[in-house]
Please model this.
Amino acid sequence: MNGSEEIKGFFGVVAPWLDQLSGVIDLLSIAVLLIGAARFTLKMVRGEFASENFRRLSIMNTARRELGSYILAGLELLIVSDVIHTAITLDLDGLLFLGGLVIIRAIIGLFLEREIRVLSEVSYASAADEDGQDKDRGS
Model:
């Protein structure tokens, strides 16, 4: 038995396990996305009932930042799953799909990270303005 045959034999044994692992990772990515969506919804509802405009804006911006983080994490897990699946199938169509998915994820990631950064800056600037107004009122 040469090295190539040993690798094929080993791969044949491991491939079903990797396929199962890929499915579990898919489920985890869906769970991450659902948890993010649920947390986002709860925070947005809570934000709607906030009495002050600043507090409402702060809660909603925080919710949007966190949702973006959950989306990025879910997409990362989906890519891991697709890499495993593509390695198992050794299919050109799967490889092309994976390449497209990585490009789409990179573009979405850039926009989400930019939005998260902007929302963070807005939240910090708003908090600083509120602190300044509170100090002015206290003087």
User: Anything to note?
Assistant: The chain has one domain: 18-138. The chain has three helices and no strands. The helical segments are 3-48, 53-89, 92-138. The two ends are 86 Å apart (CA to CA).
